[in-house]
């Protein structure tokens, strides 16, 4: 076999092996459409090269030259400065009142003093909130996605988190252990990962990280929040891909609760440890935050905000839950990177907006929110759908191309997307080809029984 024929065979083998590996990986991930298409393309694209290798040398030379030219063109396109995005200012001017967030408003009961106080302050929200309250509600057995067993399991997990709320703060040991910031930072990061976090970072606690007034959890409703800690430790825990892919059905909410509980467990353990060393520390967990966890995590270098309004991490996308511990223990700060590839990806992709059941995610570009450039979702519309479905939906999270498993194959794609605007656009197109523009929910794991009406 001459060198030209060998080159053609090599190209054919590369296509065959590469697409076959993708197909087999997709089978393992239960992505049937991607698997079928990849395995079909493995044969369809490699076979012509094997056949051309049997033809006369002149034809082989022409085909190989075309392949080389195409490869060179792709290489040039990869390095072209396509899709550069200026981050702009993304720091809000003022603090957020926790009473204004949808979770706090949902807890208000008509006729109670807190209800009357809040809607006297925000009368424009009352009609919309009352409409949401008239719906079945989260984890309601009258909701569209009601699953008695899974909903009961989810309620049990949230009850566990409530039990942890009393441990977010506590007495500080009278004797302070002198620590070296670099050693202590490395230890706490290692411990946090050991306890189950996928990523962790440290930032300086800023005023805009902190809620202005208490809206839920322990403490006096409407009381000003005072938190004078200097540092914040933020970390992310992974939500299981298989469970999340069932969105918007019941199993995805069970997984959401499970990871909120894991984040709470880690945060409480870290805070207890730090207080035992003689330094004040507070854990911030589901239902008992004093900080806006996504803002803290972003500034600690864990990711950037995407179109769906969630934090996008480099290897898991939005498929995470966050925990935060604030403290005065001296630590080494992490720096935010200057990578804006996620902003460009989300600007072009729009898959989350297309798959949102109620179109709560914007299709346009980022807009100014309190002085900060961000995509702004319609959180009232989003939360109202939760109260119809009975779950926390998570369709946007499940459909995001960044949410695919943290594997060598998908990480190679993420690597290319971070470094090339052309690659980002190619990835977005290929994602729709292999996985579909608006794929439906995946089946639940075998151990989860069907919904009663499906039995």
Structural overview:
There is one protein chain. Helices cover 48% and strands 8% of the residues. The relative contact order is 0.14. A hairpin with a 2-residue loop joins strand 7 and strand 8 (372-374). The longest helix has 27 residues, at 250-276. Helix 1 crosses helix 3 and helix 7 (148-164) packs parallel to helix 10 (250-276). It is globular. It has a 4-stranded antiparallel beta sheet, with helices on both faces. A two-stranded antiparallel sheet has the order 4-5. A two-stranded antiparallel sheet has the order 7-8. With 455 residues, it is α+β, with helices and mostly antiparallel strands. The model has no long low-confidence stretch (mean pLDDT 96).
Helicity range: 40-55%
Structural class: alpha+beta
Q: Shape from CA axes?
A: globular
Query: How much β-strand is present in the residues?
Result: 5-15%
Order of helices and strands: HHHHHHHHEEHHEHEEEHHEEHHHH
Largest sheet: 4 strands, antiparallel
Segments where pLDDT lies below 50 for 5+ residues?
Answer: none
- CA gyration radius, whole angstroms: 25 Å
Separation, N- and C-terminal Cα atoms? 61 Å
Mean pLDDT comes to 96
Number of helices: 17
Sequence of strands across the biggest β-sheet: 1-2-6-3
Got a strand count?
Answer: 8
Could you give the topology of this structure?
Elements: H1 3-28, H2 32-52, H3 57-79, H4 102-106, H5 113-121, H6 126-133, H7 148-164, H8 181-194, E1 199-204, E2 231-238, H9 241-244, H10 250-276, E3 281-284, H11 293-299, E4 304-305, E5 311-312, E6 320-327, H12 341-349, H13 351-355, E7 367-369, E8 372-374, H14 379-389, H15 395-399, H16 408-419, H17 421-435
Helix pairs in contact: 1-2, 1-3, 6-14, 7-10, 12-17, 16-17
């Amino acid at each position: 076999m001459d060198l030209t024929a060998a080159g053609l065979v090599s190209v054919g083998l590369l296509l065959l092996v590469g697409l076959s590996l993708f197909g087999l990986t997709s089978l393992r991930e239960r992505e049937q459409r991607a698997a079928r298409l990849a395995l079909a393309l493995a044969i369809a694209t490699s076979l012509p090269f094997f056949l051309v290798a049997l033809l006369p040398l002149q034809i082989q030379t022409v085909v190989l030259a075309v392949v080389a030219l195409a490869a060179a063109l792709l290489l040039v396109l990869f390095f072209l400065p396509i899709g550069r995005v200026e981050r702009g200012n993304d720091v809000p001017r003022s603090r957020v009142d926790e009473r204004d967030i949808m979770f706090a408003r949902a807890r208000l009961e008509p006729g109670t003093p807190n209800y009357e106080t809040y809607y006297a302050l925000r009368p424009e929200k009352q009609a919309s909130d009352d409409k949401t309250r008239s719906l079945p509600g989260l984890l309601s057995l009258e909701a569209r996605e009601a699953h008695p067993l899974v909903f009961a399991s989810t309620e049990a997990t949230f009850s566990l988190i409530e039990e942890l709320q009393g441990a977010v703060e506590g007495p500080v040991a009278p004797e302070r252990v002198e620590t070296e910031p670099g050693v202590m930072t490395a230890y706490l990061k290692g411990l946090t990962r050991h306890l189950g976090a996928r990523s962790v970072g440290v930032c300086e606690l800023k005023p805009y990280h902190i809620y202005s007034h208490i809206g839920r959890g322990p403490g006096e409703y409407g009381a000003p929040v005072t938190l004078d800690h200097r540092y914040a430790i933020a970390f992310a825990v992974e939500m299981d891909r298989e469970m999340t892919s069932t969105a918007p059905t019941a199993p995805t909410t069970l997984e959401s609760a499970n990871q909120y509980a894991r984040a709470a467990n880690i945060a409480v353990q870290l805070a207890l440890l730090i207080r035992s060393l003689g330094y004040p520390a507070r854990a911030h967990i589901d239902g008992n935050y004093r900080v806006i966890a996504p803002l803290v995590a972003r500034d600690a270098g864990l990711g950037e905000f995407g179109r769906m309004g969630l934090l996008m991490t480099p290897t898991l996308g939005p498929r995470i839950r966050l925990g935060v511990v604030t403290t005065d223990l001296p630590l080494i700060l992490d720096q935010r990177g200057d990578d804006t590839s996620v902003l460009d990806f989300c600007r072009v992709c729009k898959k989350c907006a297309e798959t949102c059941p109620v179109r709560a995610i914007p299709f346009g570009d980022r807009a100014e929110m309190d002085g900060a450039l961000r995509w702004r979702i319609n959180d009232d519309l989003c939360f109202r759908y939760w109260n119809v479905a009975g779950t926390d939906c998570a369709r946007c999270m499940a459909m995001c191309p960044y949410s695919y498993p943290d594997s060598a194959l998908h990480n190679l794609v993420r690597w290319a997307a971070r470094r090339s605007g052309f690659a980002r656009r190619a990835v977005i197109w290929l994602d729709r080809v292999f996985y579909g523009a608006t794929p439906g929910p995946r089946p639940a794991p075998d151990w989860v029984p069907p919904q009663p009406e499906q039995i």
